[in-house]
Amino acid sequence: MSAASKTATGNFFEDFHVGRVIHHATPRTVTSADAGLYTALTGSRFAVFSADSFAYNVGLPGAPLDDMLVFHMVFGRTVPDISLNAVANLGYAGGRFHKPVYPGDTLTATSEVIGIKENSNGRTGVVYVRSEGRNQDNERVLDYVRWVMVNKRDPASPAPETVVPELPEAVGADRLHLPPGLDAARYDTALAGSPHVWEDYAVGERIDHVDGMTIEDAEHQMATRLYQNTARVHFDGHAQKDHRFGKRIVYGGHVISLARALSFNGLANAFKVVAINGGQHTNPVFGGDTLYAWSEVVNKEEELGRPDVGSVRLRTVATKDHPCADFPDTGDDGKAHPAKVLDFDYTVLMPRRA
Amino acid sequence: MSAASKTATGNFFEDFHVGRVIHHATPRTVTSADAGLYTALTGSRFAVFSADSFAYNVGLPGAPLDDMLVFHMVFGRTVPDISLNAVANLGYAGGRFHKPVYPGDTLTATSEVIGIKENSNGRTGVVYVRSEGRNQDNERVLDYVRWVMVNKRDPASPAPETVVPELPEAVGADRLHLPPGLDAARYDTALAGSPHVWEDYAVGERIDHVDGMTIEDAEHQMATRLYQNTARVHFDGHAQKDHRFGKRIVYGGHVISLARALSFNGLANAFKVVAINGGQHTNPVFGGDTLYAWSEVVNKEEELGRPDVGSVRLRTVATKDHPCADFPDTGDDGKAHPAKVLDFDYTVLMPRRA
Amino acid sequence: MSAASKTATGNFFEDFHVGRVIHHATPRTVTSADAGLYTALTGSRFAVFSADSFAYNVGLPGAPLDDMLVFHMVFGRTVPDISLNAVANLGYAGGRFHKPVYPGDTLTATSEVIGIKENSNGRTGVVYVRSEGRNQDNERVLDYVRWVMVNKRDPASPAPETVVPELPEAVGADRLHLPPGLDAARYDTALAGSPHVWEDYAVGERIDHVDGMTIEDAEHQMATRLYQNTARVHFDGHAQKDHRFGKRIVYGGHVISLARALSFNGLANAFKVVAINGGQHTNPVFGGDTLYAWSEVVNKEEELGRPDVGSVRLRTVATKDHPCADFPDTGDDGKAHPAKVLDFDYTVLMPRRA
Predict the structure, then answer these.
(1) Distance from CA of C72 to the nearest CA of A (A)
(2) Are C194 and A8 within 8 A, CB to CB?
(3) What is the DSSP string of A1-63?
């Protein structure tokens, strides 16, 4: 066995076929250290994740890990198998959070290939995977679809039969998983930081989150390593000098987390992410960039069958070096505002007025 | 309800009146992650906070969180309500540490307005608040007075009646709260890192702490986010470009923590801060600055009514890019040495010679 | 007692004599925060340290702290006494890991001077110490020899009698300490991230670890402070401006940790470091440098007296700003490749094929 074969090179387009299931390596016990570092790296303030007492009051056994932290932990496990040779991370769909994750839980991840399509250039193709994370009791904590553009190992290899999965535009209210035991009747809005509850948000309403956050290379590297995400573009500044942007690129998930943390100012009671409907990284982000964000209320489900909480579908847009008082967006021509870096479509729970 | 109103703008001078009590948002369960990050961000080495075994030996149930970490956690909660529109943080007085804080405790904070005074320019005013932090058992862990200069929302609004609280120059020995169970008879000075105990320090003595610590932007941002302190000047490098200093300003509390950590070299047995008598941030600190520190023994209380520990009132001065062998200070003309960034007046416990 | 004497100046060459035992200060309770920060700072992915479940499966009571994290914690305690006045860290030998360290353990360290030799210039000398770390039950967790070049306080002081200890070239298989309870029969290579086990590695084989990692000043400072290592060259950017390299130097141990983390890609099943045979830091590393690494299989012990694991002696070489496809090394003339920063000789355990 040669030395070269000891080093993992990741999967190429030819290595994926519909139905292939990949059990990802590196199980991960998550701890209060992950929660603390997440706070230090993002500044998140959502009360359910910040205090055990607040979590008890809404029926949970303690403060769970932030939903997006769970997403990054699961996503991180999939990188060596799914996206080490990815040219681009094209999209997300149908993401749902299931059982909350608590300090001490151990997460593992698997992915199933659910679609494949070679590009007309013959050098790359698109791979669709449904990835899921499970805890030590084999309970599902998260599943989501993502699709990535992957290099072929050999441009001459024949194209596989195209399979494009049908993907939901958004996760319907009937498919959401709410945390077992959740009861928001005693949710304390004053302690959470805002009087605005589910009834106060109108479909179409836009909120400028005002605050800005400058990203340092040390910060996004620490976050991305915490998730054991190994994509080289985030870490290898020497090699990046010869690439397109000339520098390290911030992990898109860190941008999502910062946008979510910034959204606290205006959405403090959006206390739990329950679905990821979609997301595009419209421009790369680099160390030294300052992120801003605004959100739009896309939809509100009248009925989750309960009086304590309602769901809100949000779209949070992040920009770099451009405050969001003018709500920079993608135009009707499909061209994103040059400062726009993220368009994230997700569903949150908010307490309802008693 | 309009979108604009969803975003918190903080309180302006007109929003404060004497007697107003504010229950601050975002309860915070502190964990060993906070302690670990505090060590990583400051390099603190005081033995009581570093090792459970050392804490047991002085009668505590385990290593508590560093006093200044507790201060920052409580202070962080107050920022969105007290100092989001602050022009300047003018001073601290009468700060006392009560019940020690242990990993797993959940902290909440409240503030009461105890003084108010409009400035003659009619555009700003000074607000005095007594803030306190409590744990999940409603036990007080810290209280302190601070006063800030806050913008008026409308310069035309009438001035309130001036109330300036009487503040102690320092917290007297009879008002100090020592940790329940504390017994320093078995305090191990060798393990703590210095043979110098209470008896060895003389009033007026000055100590150059020698070591220097360069601050990176990633570090002060992580520290300040860990405390969920949201003051924008620490994070928004893009907006700061157009402001007075052209760059992000380091949270003054991080400067205090670094000065305290540097003071270990010369004050290793100043094992517990029991009071904050006062403090001024005499110059702003920026990423890239190197901090140095020196201390002066201001006072020693002969009697705490016990043979194991004595209290020492200290003044620790921090400078930037200027080692402290010459003890740079504020002159008789009231002008601070240009390199001086902090003048912190506090009271510590030290073990007494048996 | 004068103020000057309060500040620790560290030991000079004259302060060491063979047989002197130093009990180092600052006991340290290690927690999951240390493990989490180590992951965030290095990106380590070795499964035994990443997941409790994986550790249970190989007979351990939970995920221990990474071996190199334990090394840094013990090493950090020794710095104020051994190497504060060191000119150079010359080498390591005979390092062995004993009892694994778990979150909650409290570490203390002692060193015994085992050799001493004044240099011919009369201004410096070499001091050999055997340092060891113990846990709260007084069980040894690590011991190792290192030798450092230390300044004399007074060049005129007489040279001591030279004592140079006999040091092993490598730790023999019969002297290795394996973790109590270890049973790798159920070691899951898929979950660990590589199919390559002990049998697959050949003596003389070289592995390019491919990936690169850029080091930020904030990162190495946080790592080094986490270990409470106080060597000034890592932190004081202002003073370093006037020194040889003009900037802060990365703690060599952080370089070792990054090289070990990079080696995962090719050595994923080298799941436990059991010995440190030697190591040289052949060039300084600075913030902004990008590390790469390659390894060579130096030796394989056929017999540890058990069928589940075998030991492999490795040499991992790290470079800066130079990918390792060409295996840059020290030439026959004894001159290290200019990009080479580390040559680390250590012994690992790998699972054997059933």
Answers:
(1) 19
(2) yes
(3) --SGGGS-----GGG--TT-EEE-S--EE--HHHHHHHHHHH----HHHH-HHHHHHTT-SSP
The per-residue DSSP string of C195-246 comes to S--GGG--TT-EEE----EEPPHHHHHHHHHHTT---GGGT-HHHHTTSTTS
Q: What are the residues whose beta carbons fall under 8 Å from the beta carbon of B252, sequence distance 6 or more?
A: B89, B281, B285, B342
pLDDT tens, N- to C-terminus, chain A (354 residues) = 444 589 988 899 999 999 999 999 999 999 999 999 999 999 999 999 999 999 999 999 999 999 999 999 999 999 999 998 888 889 999 999 999 999 999 999 999 999 999 999 999 999 999 999 999 999 999 999 999 999 999 999 999 999 999 999 999 999 999 999 999 999 999 999 999 999 999 999 999 999 999 999 999 999 999 999 999 999 999 999 999 899 999 999 999 999 999 999 999 999 999 999 999 999 999 999 999 999 999 999 866 889 999 999 999 999 999 999 999 999 889 899 999 999 999 999 999 997
Question: Any alpha helices (H) in chain B, and if so which ranges?
Answer: 32-42, 47-50, 52-57, 67-82, 189-192, 217-226, 237-240, 252-262, 264-267
In sequence order, which residues have a C-beta less than 8 Å from that of residue C20 and are 6 or more positions away? C112, C113
The shortest CB-CB distance from B32 to any of C27, C33, C235 is to C33
In total, how many domains does chain A have? 1
**Beta-carbon separation of B290 and C218 below 8 A:** no
Taking an 8 Å cut-off on Cβ atoms, the answer to whether B214 and C238 are in contact is yes
Selecting from C37, C51, C208 the residue whose C-beta is nearest the C-beta of A7 gives C208
Q: What gap in Å lies between CA A257 and CA A339, rounded to an integer?
A: 18
- Is the predicted ipTM greater than 0.90, yes or no? yes
The reply to whether residue C290 touches residue A236, judged by beta carbons under 8 angstroms, is: yes
Q: Which two tokens stand for residue C140?
A: 């040894």
C100 alpha-carbon distance from chain centroid: 15
pLDDT digits 0-9 by tens, C231-285: 999 999 999 999 989 999 999 999 999 999 999 999 999 999 999 999 999 999 9
Residue A247 placed within a domain: yes
- Domain range for A254 is 10-154+169-351
pTM: predicted TM-score of the whole model, two decimal places = 0.97
- Test B37 with A42 for CB contact under 8 angstroms: no
Say if B8 falls within a structural domain. Answer: no
Reduced to 3 states (helix: H, G, I; strand: E, B; else coil), residue C343 is strand
Whole-angstrom Cα distance, residue B348 to residue B55? Answer: 16
Is C298 inside a domain boundary?
yes
Q: What's the CATH number where C147 sits?
A: 3.10.129.10
Residue A2 lies in a domain: no
